[in-house]
Structures are given as structure tokens and as C-alpha cells.
Amino acid sequence: MSTNHSTSTCTIQFPTSPAWFSTIRQLLSAATLQCGFSDRDSGQVAMAVDEALSNIYRHGYGGSSGKVTLQFTTAIEPTPTIHIEIEDEAEQVDLDCIRSRDLSDVKPGGLGVHLIQTVMDEAKWSKNDQHGMKLTMMKRSNIMPTTTTQSTTSNG
Amino acid sequence: MDEQSLQLDIDTSPVGCIVTPLGDIDMTKSTEFRYALKPIIESKPTLIIINLAHVPYMDSSGVATLIEGLQLSKQANIPFSLCALSKGVQSIIELARLDKIFSIYETKEQALEE
């Protein structure tokens, strides 16, 4: 993890085994809380990453374990913000197929993309040059960082 | 890494069946949860209450299991409700716009009264 004043970057490579997902959620929660996100926003970022990883495991790697690289950068100022990139080496998916479904049709499944697009400020899927997909996401916290103001006392 | 199996407390009485999962319900647990719910529904209890007080986090596969439970219960004419949602579960239920689809109660007692 590298830190430069108010920004920190973390890169982690792991297999898409669902056994890892809880650990990744905890990592994202800790990082976002540390940079000033509310509990609610922090939980939503962790959920978006969890749903993205589930989709890669299920649809990209067809339920088998494959390699995933997760990189995120948090910034405290001017507003707590997180930028996330998730890259896999799975079979490429038609970008038109990645979309939210009609939620008025109540049925199990197909909620992941809707959840990601709803909780993140930006979410964009793209194909890598040769193989694999990349998901780029960004979320800004609704909470402004606490600033320390200096008061000047005049004795004159 | 989390590889523990799902812990479930199942309280069956003439009043109905209260199912209390313990811990997060994500991809590693939702299939087990689905397999646990099916025989409960097939046993045709008076009602089914899923007590989510001890589930801090649920992903979309857990939500899918709840939808499936609701649909199977409806087919069998068994009232199916959720109670004591944690903030994490409340959040995903609302984001998935399912808060009007499920009967949701603040407490187990309120769910039993209905």
C-alpha cells in the first residue's frame, strides 16, 4: 500500500474463489472508513466490489477460480473518494450484455449490475486489449472532511 | 478467508417456524441457505419468519434465496416474512426495491403478531 499525503493506493491479486470475498469486503470497508466515508457509504462500496467479484467468478470464469487484480486509491481531500479498478483474465463479455434488469419483474438473480450502478457514482466496464475485462468504479463520500480552522485573537 | 458453513437456528412450534441465520450470507453461504429453506417450506408450517438480526451482510445471491423462499411459500400458501433487518441487509433490500415485496417487521414478536 502506498501513501502520498492524503491519497493511498492498494493493489492486490487473488483467486476469484468466493472464500476470498469476505476478506476483500473487510479490506474495502476499512480503507473507506479510514478516508472518511460514512458507515453506509463504506458498506455500499464493499458491496459493489463483492458483486463485481461474484459476477467475474460466476460469468467470467464460469464458477472456476481465476486471477483477479484489484486496485483502489482513496483520497481524503477535497472529498473522501475511492477509485477502484478490477481486472480479470476471463473470457470477454459483450458489453451490451452488462446491464441492469427490469426490477419490477421480481425474480431471483440478476441484481448485481443494478446494485453496482446504483451505489457507485461511476461504473464502467471495458474489454482489455487481449483477454479479460476491466471494471472501473468511483465513489465520492457525501461527508465533507473535517477541516481544522485556525482562529486569530486580536489583542489590539 | 471465510470457508465456514452457514449456521442456522431453526425454531419450529405450532405457531410457525422462525429461521435465524447467523453471520454473513454471501456466495459461500447462499446455496446452503437455499437447501435449508426448501424442506422447511415443504413441511408446511403455519408461517415462516426469517430473523435477520444476526446477518450483518447479505449479497445479491442471499437476496435471490429470500425471493425464492417467498415464491415457494406463496405457492404453498404459507405467510413468509422477514424481521429485525440489520442496516446492511436493509440497505440491499431497499436498493433491490424489494422492501414493498416482502413483509418486513422490526422485531420477531411483531412478525408473530401479524
Can you put this structure into words, describing what you see?
The complex is a heterodimer of chains A (156) and B (114). Chain A has 156 residues and is of the alpha+beta class. Chain A has a single domain, classed as Heat Shock Protein 90 (2-Layer Sandwich). Chain A contains three helices and six strands; from the N terminus they run ββααββαββ. Chain A has a six-stranded antiparallel beta sheet, covered by helices on one side. The N and C termini of chain A lie far apart (50 Å). The C terminus of chain A is likely disordered. Chain B is α/β, with parallel strands linked by helices and 114 residues long. Chain B has a single domain, classed as STAS domain (Transcription Regulator spoIIAA). Chain B has four helices and five strands. Chain B has a five-stranded mixed beta sheet with strand order 1-2-3-4-5. In chain B, helix 1 packs parallel to helix 2. The mean pLDDT of chain B is 94. The chains are: A alpha+beta (156), B alpha/beta (114). Chains A and B meet through helix 1, helix 2 and helix 3 of A and helix 2 and helix 3 of B.
Q: Walk across the major sheet of chain B and give the strand order.
A: 1-2-3-4-5
Distance between the termini of chain A: 50 Å
Question: Could you give the order of the helices and strands of chain A?
Answer: EEHHEEHEE
Helical stretch tally of chain B: 4
Give me the number of helical elements of chain A. Answer: 3
Helix share, percent of chain A: 25-40%
CATH topology of chain B, what is it called? Transcription Regulator spoIIAA
CATH homologous superfamily designation of chain A = Histidine kinase-like ATPase, C-terminal domain
- The CATH class designation of chain B is Alpha Beta
Spell out the CATH superfamily of chain B.
STAS domain
Q: What is the CA–CA distance across the termini of chain B?
A: 40 Å
